[in-house]
Amino acid sequence: MKKQPATSVGEVVFITAIAGFLMSIVSPIVAGRLTGDAAVCSNNERQIGVALRLYADDYDGTFPPNRLSSPRQVWRDVVFPYLALDTARAQTLFTCPTNFAAFDSGGDESQRWPRSYAYNAGLMYGKYVLTAGATDTVRITDVKTPGRYMLLLETRNAAPDLGPWMIDGNATPDGSWSNPDVRYWNQLPSTGKGVFHHHDKYMNVVMVDGRASAVTLPQTIAVPQMWNAWQPADAYTGKLAGMLDEYK
Prior knowledge:
Elements: H1 9-26, H2 28-33, H3 37-58, H4 75-79, H5 87-93, E1 117-120, H6 121-130, E2 150-154, E3 161-162, E4 170-171, E5 177-178, E6 202-207, E7 212-216, H7 217-221
Parallel strand pairs: 1-3
Antiparallel strand pairs: 1-2, 2-6, 4-5, 6-7
Helix pairs in contact: 1-3
């Protein structure tokens, strides 16, 4: 039986403040790359990352599932109580100011939240494959090098997650994606854009250990890759050849 969130509002505010302070000390490179709206976006994502870790602390180190568990619940719903914000302010927090796809076609799959940030589905689907389909829910202890793998990243896609199979695909106006190598999607590329949002090539990401960073999409598939803790370090280097020019 799942526990109710045990973390108080005061604890959330305190931990978020500490995270912000640590970010200012340990990530001068990130701060140097990101200014203005991009920095706001990074701060939003970092606060969401703190909330995810607080959730995991209350659920035996387990992160929320990445897919819709019901028509009215996505991972954003279960993280929401840990943000100590009302709904309007929380929606602002989940919106990157430069991501104009955030509310296209109603927002995310639930059509209740903006789609600026998404789970790393490579990490989640990797667990699904590892367990022969039993679960796609990841524990912090599953990832032996949590500073190496992404947990959250920026998206233009309506789904609650992004995977490495989308690296050489296109965004579509309805918030889906298309890829000529994935035959069961029947949309055609029509935007010329990819599914990953970025700021002058740099995407804001939060790693499994809670650290915020800014990386390029090619960096995420370089050796060692940042997507899937159950795949080799060079698992996705072949995607570089098909990557859209906007990310190179």
